Amino acid sequence: MENSYQTKVVLLACGSFNPITNMHLRMFELARDYLEDTGKYRVVKGIISPVGDGYKKKGLIEASHRIEMARLATESSDWVIVDPWEGQQAEWVETAKVVRHHYEELLAAEGSNDEVDTVKAGKKRRHEDREGCTHFHCVRTAGPAAGTGHRCRQRGDSDRKWRDVPQLKFLCGADVLESFGVPNLWKSEDITEIVGHYGMVCITRAGNDAWKVVHQSDKLWRHRKNIHLVKEWVSNDISATHLRRALRRGQSVRYLLPDPVVHYIQEHSLYSAESEEKNADVILAPLQKYSKGCS
Ligand SMILES: Nc1ncnc2c1ncn2[C@@H]1O[C@H](COP(=O)(O)OP(=O)(O)OP(=O)(O)O)[C@@H](O)[C@H]1O
Ligand SMILES: NC(=O)c1ccc[n+]([C@@H]2O[C@H](COP(=O)(O)O)[C@@H](O)[C@H]2O)c1
Ligand SMILES: [Zn+2]
């Protein structure tokens, strides 16, 4: 039931989706149920953003295939879409930048009309007439919007003009939360921006103790009110790694991912011993970038 005090939320999941699995889709359903059960939120859209080829993860097949599989997988959903923007970039894009990009899209949609409330809006993306927003500066100590007067829905600004812009929250599994602590993988200010400014919804995953991760990190603990930890009671450890292994061995992967995706994989003969060797001797883009000390 709609309630004017509820905050609209858009969920954004970034990852390899190599290939997309049923668990990736379940993450969205679990997160929506959790947020809506609080009575405070109404989840209006979910966005899947497959990472670009520049990420250089071992076994990562071409973004065009991963995007298409995600598109096929979301065809049956009336609220989750796939957005190809990140996957189409020539270079790897830091996740904080991807989140910013999508928030700007929400603001642009709000600037033109309120179509953001529908999945159609995501499919019919706007690239013109952007209403510039420097909201991400407000997590920094200096910058044009650091002072007062900057209006930003993410900060809960109740101004009428901003009331209808949904909040954007980063959706991930507990392994991604845990990866925040891996040296040279994430920039500290990016974590602050994602968690402190936007907020995240994190789904538990076998082998990862999300509560412990938050407890043991001073930064995450400080932002704990912005981190929604969702317990998956029917634990389901489907992983894309497991699927790729089964596919290499000619085993069935049916019912672990949507049928149209299974057909697409067969049709294009994706995932072989050879594809698993892609990027085998290349360093993951963020590690390459941050261990050089450049950011
Ligand atoms: N079984 C799962 N439970 C909870 N979260 C999951 C699960 N599988 C994937 N995720 C989450 O989905 C997002 C995208 O994950 P990713 O594409 O890396 O899938 P993956 O199954 O972990 O793949 P890989 O095995 O190649 O690492 C991440 O936030 C990840 O934590
Ligand atoms: N510093 C960063 O912004 C950073 C570091 C590592 C992974 N990531 C993102 O997290 C996701 C992780 O995906 P995988 O679990 O498939 O490796 C990807 O979308 C990747 O771009 C971001
Ligand atoms: Zn993963």
From TrEMBL:
GO cellular component, one term: nucleus
Recorded metabolic or biological pathway in which this protein acts: Cofactor biosynthesis; NAD(+) biosynthesis; deamido-NAD(+) from nicotinate D-ribonucleotide: step 1/1; Cofactor biosynthesis; NAD(+) biosynthesis; NAD(+) from nicotinamide D-ribonucleotide: step 1/1
Gene3D superfamilies assigned: HUPs (3.40.50.620)
Transferase in keyword set: yes
Single annotated GO MF: nicotinate-nucleotide adenylyltransferase activity
EC number of this enzyme: 2.7.7.1, 2.7.7.18
Protein name: Nicotinamide-nucleotide adenylyltransferase
Taxonomic classification: Eukaryota, Metazoa, Chordata, Craniata, Vertebrata
